[in-house]
Every structure is written in C-alpha cells, then in structure tokens.
C-alpha cells in the first residue's frame, strides 16, 4: 500500500474533480433579526446547521435542562415508581405540587415535569433514577459527552441558577436531536395536557410551549426562564418532510416567541430536502494505492438545500477509512469510508459509505531470489581465484628465483 500522504493526495485530487455537484454564485436569504444572545437552527435528522449565532457561547439554560432529565428517566427508569422525598417537595420555583411521601409512576411525573417545568418533579426523578442527585447529574454529563455535545456543564437536574450549570446552543441542539429520536420523549413533548392522580383532586397541567398552539407543524420541545438565564427555548417543528430544531439562549420576554416562530419559519421558507443519491446509487470511485472501487450508501443521501443556491452551494468528498487496504481485496457492501457534504460552506452531513462492488485481491507478484542465481557464479569466481593463487604459490616454491 502507498504511503499515507500519497493516499490523502489521491483522495483529495479525486474530490477536487468529483466533489462539486454544480458551480456558480452562492446566495442565501437573510435570516430574521433575533433578540437572543445565542441561537442555532439545525436539521433535526442530520444535524446540518442552517443558522448559528454564537453557537458555542455558554449561558444559563434554565428549564431546558429538563430535556436531558426526561431522556435519562425514559432510558434508565421508565418502569420505576417515583417516591417523592421531602427535599424534592421543597424545591423552589415552578412546581408540579408534589407532596413528600407520594408514590407516582415515572411516566406521569416526567410528563408533568416537561409540560410545566416542575422543579420538584425533576428533583424526584433524579433521586429515583440516579439514587442521589449528584449521581444523576454525573449521568447527565456522561451522556452529553457520549453525544459529543460541546459547551455542556450540568450541575443539577432542573436548571436552577448555578455558576457551574451552563450550556451552549449547539450542545443543546445535539441533545435535543438525540432526545427527539426517542419516540416516548417525542410523544411527551408534543402533549398539550396531562394530569397527576387525585390529591385530593386531579392536578391538571397544560403545556407552556406556546408554539404547540400557534405555529403550524410544532412538535415540542421545552422552554425555560430564570432571572439569570432570561428566556430560553428549544423548539422543533415538522413540515413537508423537513424537521427543524432551534435553540435560543438569553432571549427577552418580548422577543422569545417572535424569535422562535420567525427563525423556524425562515428555515422552512429557505431550505428544502434534496436527495443527492438514492439508496445503493453509485456516489463515486475511491482511489487508493493505484486501485479504484465504486462506493455507495445503504440509505438515501439527503440534505437541506438552500432555495436560492440549490445544488450550486453543495460540495462533497469521500474520506477513506483510516485502515482500509485494497491489497487484500474489498467485498461488496464492506464499509470503506465516510461521505462528507457541505451546503453553502457549512458541514451538512457525514454518512458511512460501502463498496458497491467486489474488488479482488491484488494478484500474487512473481518474486525472484536473485542471490540464488548469483551464488553459482560467485562460487565459480572464488574457485578460479583460489586455483590461480595456489598455482602461483606452487611455482614459487618449485622454481625459486636465484639472485
């Protein structure tokens, strides 16, 4: 196999030839003005960034923290019974009016928590799932790390102000994408009304996310407010095959809902789903060590393309797997690399690609051990020299020179 630099040079040269779907000027509709200090809008399916303002800046999150709390409750404690401790019942701020000693099913508590941001419910969930709140917080941070969510530093399960409890817009968008992929979570955050068992009368809760009632296609996910965090929201909506997730941090009371609606609307008006390659369609050929193999994807390759630039703003390349060697051959459907796509200069997609064909091993090369051919000659020459030398010595002894 050729050296690493040669492999990279070959792949980059092919990407330069094949990596543009079209050429031309790239334009994009201007996004709406926002009052939020940090914001991001992403494709909920792929994570493609459509808009970003200070996406890595860290702010207080308030109750959007509970997105992670609810996700872990679903994953690790969905069939448990929540026993409300005195400490949970005493939590300040927004409340589900839980009473110490109550025993409630986890699904009911989590749903109430997500609809009205109950801090008492979040604390009770954390104690039930994690054993203790610090252990649950460790689970929250561990999960954020597994998802590679940047700028996430959880220190409690409810979002109450804490100098060590900070998030970034991009990190929360990644967390929301993973959470929304869970059907139970997705069902909860689009629920408009729920209730807890009588105490002595049913406690009825209505979802505080106004977008569910006013924005066409809204499907959740969570709002938050504290004096330190100001207004925050993670919102999601679906229309005509497009799934968008937005995060707004440190917004104003007057700006939150217009910002949330306008940014989502801008996303739907500015982008549309574009399938670049259908499933099993040949994307290109990967060139490694003087050999080529056609590559494809097991699933369709779809991005959100700008309505202004369309295909003109799309670039792509195929990056081979680091340890891929074609000398031993490649099997059809064997993973061989990653397809990377950019839309208007922003990373849009990373998707595994596989071989579209069988590539047989390199034929065995005929190797000659040349030293075997040279050995007889070397022995013969050595023998000649020895004989000549012996003759010279014999003559000198038999016929000494007399002076």
UniProtKB/TrEMBL annotation:
Active site (record annotation): 63, 66, 117
Residues annotated to bind substrate: 222
Stored InterPro entries: Beta-lactam/transpept-like (IPR012338), Peptidase_S11 (IPR018044), Peptidase_S11_N (IPR001967)
Domain of life: Bacteria
Molecular functions per Gene Ontology: serine-type D-Ala-D-Ala carboxypeptidase activity
UniProt keyword list: Carboxypeptidase, Cell shape, Cell wall biogenesis/degradation, Hydrolase, Peptidoglycan synthesis, Protease, Signal
Entry's Gene Ontology BP terms: cell wall organization; peptidoglycan biosynthetic process; proteolysis; regulation of cell shape
Family in the record: Belongs to the peptidase S11 family.
PANTHER family: D-ALANYL-D-ALANINE CARBOXYPEPTIDASE (PTHR21581), D-ALANYL-D-ALANINE CARBOXYPEPTIDASE DACB (PTHR21581:SF33)
Protein name as it appears in the record: Serine-type D-Ala-D-Ala carboxypeptidase
């Amino acid at each position: 196999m050729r050296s690493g630099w040669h492999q990279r040079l070959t792949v980059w040269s092919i990407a330069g030839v094949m990596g543009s779907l079209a050429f031309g000027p790239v334009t994009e509709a201007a996004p709406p003005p926002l009052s939020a200090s940090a914001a991001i809008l992403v494709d909920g399916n792929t994570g493609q960034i459509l808009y970003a303002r200070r996406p890595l800046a860290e702010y207080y999150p308030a109750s959007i923290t509970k997105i992670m709390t609810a996700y872990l409750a679903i994953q690790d404690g969905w069939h448990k019974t929540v026993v409300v401790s005195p400490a949970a019942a005493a939590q300040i701020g927004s409340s589900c009016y839980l009473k110490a000693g109550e025993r409630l099913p986890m699904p009911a508590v989590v749903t109430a928590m997500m609809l009205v941001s109950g801090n008492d419910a979040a604390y009770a969930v954390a104690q039930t799932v994690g054993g203790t709140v610090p252990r649950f917080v460790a689970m929250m941070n561990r999960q954020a790390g597994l998802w590679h969510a940047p700028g996430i530093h959880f220190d409690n399960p409810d979002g109450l102000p804490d100098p060590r409890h900070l998030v970034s817009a991009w990190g929360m968008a990644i967390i929301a994408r993973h959470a929304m992929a869970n059907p139970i979570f997705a069902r909860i955050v689009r629920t408009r009304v729920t209730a807890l068992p009588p105490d002595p009368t049913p406690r009825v809760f209505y979802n505080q996310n106004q977008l569910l009632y006013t924005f066409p296609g809204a499907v959740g996910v969570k709002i938050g407010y504290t004096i330190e965090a100001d207004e925050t929201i993670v919102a999601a909506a679906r229309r005509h095959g497009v799934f968008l997730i937005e995060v707004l941090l440190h917004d104003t009371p007057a700006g939150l809902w217009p910002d949330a609606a306008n940014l989502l609307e801008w996303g739907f008006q500015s982008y549309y789903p574009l399938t670049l390659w259908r499933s099993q369609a040949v994307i290109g050929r990967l060139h490694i060590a003087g050999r080529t193999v056609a590559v494809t994807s097991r699933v369709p390759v779809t991005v959100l393309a700008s309505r202004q630039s369309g295909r003109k703003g799309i670039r792509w390349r195929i990056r081979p797997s680091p340890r891929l060697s074609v000398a031993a051959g490649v099997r059809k459907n064997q993973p061989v690399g990653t397809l990377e796509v950019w839309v208007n200069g922003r990373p849009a997609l990373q998707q595994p690609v596989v071989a579209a064909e069988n590539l047989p091993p390199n034929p065995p090369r005929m190797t000659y051990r040349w030293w075997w051919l040279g050995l007889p000659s070397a022995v013969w020459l050595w023998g000649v020299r020895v004989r000549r030398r012996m003759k010279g010595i014999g003559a000198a002894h038999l016929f000494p020179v007399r002076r």
